Amino acid sequence: MTLNALLFQALNGLSSASSLFLVAAGLSLIFGVTRIVNIAHGSLYMLGTYIAYSLAMHIGGALGFWGGIVATAVVVGILGALIEIVLLRRIYRAPELFQLLATFALVLIINDAALWIWGPEDLLGPRAPGLRDAIEILGRHLPTYDLFLIFVGPVVLIAMHLALARTRLGRLVRAATQDREMVGALGVNQAILFTVVFALGSALAGLGGALQVAREPANLSTDLTAISDAFVVVVVGGMGSIGGAYLAAVIIAEVKALCIGIGVLHIAGMALNFSKLTLVAEFLVMAIVLIVRPYGLLGRVQAAVRSIAEPEEPIRAATPTFKLFATAVLVILIFMPLLARNSPYTLVLGIDVLIAVLFATSLHFIMGPGGMHSFGHAAYFGLGAYGAALLVKWLGAPMSVALIAAPAVALAGGLLFGWFAVRLEGVYLAMITLAFAQIVWALVFQWEELTGGSNGVIGVWPPPPFDKSGFYFLLTLALTALGVFLLRRFLFAPFGYAMRAGRDSPLRAEAIGIHVKRVHWLGFAIAGCVCGIAGGLFAFAKGSISPETIHVQRSIDGLVMVLLGGIQTLTGPIVGASLFATLQDTVMRQTEYWRALLGGIILVLVLAFPGGIVGAFTRLFTKRAAVT
Amino acid sequence: MTTDPMLKLESLSAWYGAARILYDLDLEVGRGEVVALMGRNGAGKSTTMKAIMGLIAHRTGGVHFNGRDISRLKPFEIARLGLGFTPEDRRIFVDLTVIENLDIGRQPTRQFADGHPAPAWTPEKLFALFPNLAEMPNRPGGRMSGGEQQMLTVARTLMGNPLLVLLDEPSEGVAPVIVEQMANTIVGLKKEGLSILLSEQNVHFARLVSDRVYVLEKGQIRWHGTISDLAANAEIQRAYLAV
């Protein structure tokens, strides 16, 4: 390809960078001050496109378009303020992950609200009045609107920079980003500051979405794409750094544009399609940046959030009553195939639930006791599932071999990714785990020759007698019980103590001779390994798997399961997974608006039981015990 | 000591998680008085200050300030009543310059309950009080020495025109020359009519500045009296303060 073509692609990249930057800057601003990672930020962006579309269509003309864009930013800003006041204000003291869960519930609700208001079709807005033409640059036609977008990013960047440096609000934002508790102790009303910041950040997302109206159709899937792009940008640029966000937006947009520009390249007889690499490219950039600069390009080491939430209670070994109860549950489950003879669906549901339990328990292992919030646990599930399925497909391996290979493959993945992940902390760790999961997903999706691409792998059926759901249920039960028991055993072994010590005070743990990173690395790998069993079981339970198995949605489902049950208890993930999988298989299949329903349930749970279901029960019982 | 104290703690207790840190503290600071809260590391001095400021979630007991019950208020509401707090670890905003740090602390001027105006501070007045800061108004907080940061913390709190200041270990970890300067500052602030509750481990420093002393050990007040009584009481010093 010619140099001109490359330069032209670079211009294209710059115009994409602008809206990427707007979304990311808002996210970064909100995170900096409130320390809330607002997953619903992408939804606000999506709403921006829809609202701008409606305004442009209904009012029409230049006023409808340009006025509509400004009005959209205002409307979305107000919506953001409402979200902050009605929802988030109640959960600032809740654990970080609970806040994530609440904002994720908003994603679901907003998505269904948009579906209800605007319908499932893509909606392409009008072209921008006054900027309908294209100009010739480098021998190609560049739409003037794209040219306009190229300038929007830097203009907003400069405006934000000046506002942060020169205004009192800006100074408060910078101070609160560093130490919001101290800002409060100096007499600043945090509640108002948080609302204002949330409104501003949301308005930026709305503006970013609105500006897209003339470029891309409004689409119900842009919420998750926008948020994952924005996360990558914010993390690469450095959380809380607005300049870093612009730099990162440009780098990522350019890398993507160049991948498209290069297209298919023939190297040593091999055709390498770069345009397919766009999916992987941004996550590769992020992984590299995080490894070289763990706090992003222009980020700084984050001061620990001075939380006034109560510290976590130590986990306790099971009481005899509880052991009895667990045994009783297990015995009932063993008799399930007999009890549910006449309802095969119950057994299928039971298998789903058990697999979910194993998946969630392994995630909880690193999230709770390990303190490592993985946003990409689907990777290990997928590695297990594909590891098993591909062995069957290509080598005709028997199920026993495939089910042993599943955890082995996942373990390898866990060892590899974990080595990088444990070098980071907090949100950065969450993001790199997400990045690895996305890379695995993209590899599976695009390596069609091996994995079947989007068609997946079919015909992965268990041999007799496990082709009967009763027997497969028992197999799943045995492996799940084994996995859960092993993970629990680890936690009450010196290894588990070391892992928790490393979570609670890494410095002191190091000082008494614990190699914290190594312990956490092993913990990460163990969790991945056990999760691989769940993936293998899943492949044989469904008979076919697709890249959906590794989709980010699965990672998020896992988080929801763990948090539903309560992260501070060991039974939490089991209860949470059971409830979630059951709800997913029953209630949610019944309605078109299952997302909103799920979101509503999550919000009620978050507001009513900030310690998860099991946490709430425990508290109820301990209170009773204290009274009597 | 005036009959109506500026700050009065009634049976204040505080917890971190399940661990109880403070046990039923009773303490008073009169108007214009400098009171030292003394004790070894871990005795509960900083926790007392944070509990007064509303920065500890789990606490019981009464906190009265300037005639008002503040035990249920949020930190920013407490600060807005004229209670200033300078934390032991200073907590300077490292990204902000000296002048910007001062701006964050800015609050309207206020009066005592009797209508008497409280000392009002401006950056100029504070630069006169802390000449070191005057030399570096545009330096980021992160590029200052420990002593300079200590001065900035105090100055930042004074920007809120407080009636009473909680000074947590002003002499800790700074050079002797700064310690001396800090002592002079405290005496100067007292002259302006401010009340001060300071936490301190060093008897010599406390002697330079304070009127009365409460001695804390394991979260309980073991002794209180005037500073001269403490200075004369070697037994109390040995039991609760000697390292």
Short descriptors:
heterodimer, A: 628 residues, mainly alpha, ABC transporter involved in vitamin B12 uptake, BtuC, 2 domains, two-stranded antiparallel sheet, 26 helices, 6 strands, 72% helix, 3% strand, B: 243 residues, alpha/beta, Rossmann fold, six-stranded mixed sheet, four-stranded antiparallel sheet
In words, what does this structure look like?
The complex is a heterodimer of chains A (628) and B (243). Chain A is mainly alpha-helical. Chain A contains 26 helices and 6 strands. Chain A has 2 domains: 3-292, Orthogonal Bundle (ABC transporter involved in vitamin B12 uptake, BtuC), CATH 1.10.3470; 325-594, Orthogonal Bundle (ABC transporter involved in vitamin B12 uptake, BtuC), CATH 1.10.3470. In chain A, 72% of the residues lie in helices and 3% in strands. In chain A, the strands form 3 sheets. A two-stranded antiparallel sheet of chain A has the order 1-2. In chain A, strand 3 (264-267) and strand 4 form a beta hairpin. Chain B has 243 residues and is an alpha/beta fold. Chain B has one domain (7-241): 3-Layer(aba) Sandwich (Rossmann fold). Chain B has helices spanning 45-52, 75-80, 98-104, 123-129, 131-134, 146-158, 176-191, 203-209, 227-232, 234-241; strands spanning 7-16, 19-29, 34-38, 58-65, 68-69, 83-86, 164-168, 195-200, 212-217, 220-226. In chain B, helix 3 runs parallel beside helix 6. Chain B has a 6-stranded mixed sheet, with helices on both faces. Chain B has a 4-stranded antiparallel sheet with strand order 2-1-4-5, with helices on one face. Classes of the chains: A mainly alpha (628), B alpha/beta (243). The A-B interface holds A 93, 168, 171-172, 174-175, 177-179, 181-190, 308-311, 313 and B 16-18, 53, 55-58, 74-76, 79-80, 85, 87, 91, 93-96, 100-101, 103-105, 107, 156-157, 160.
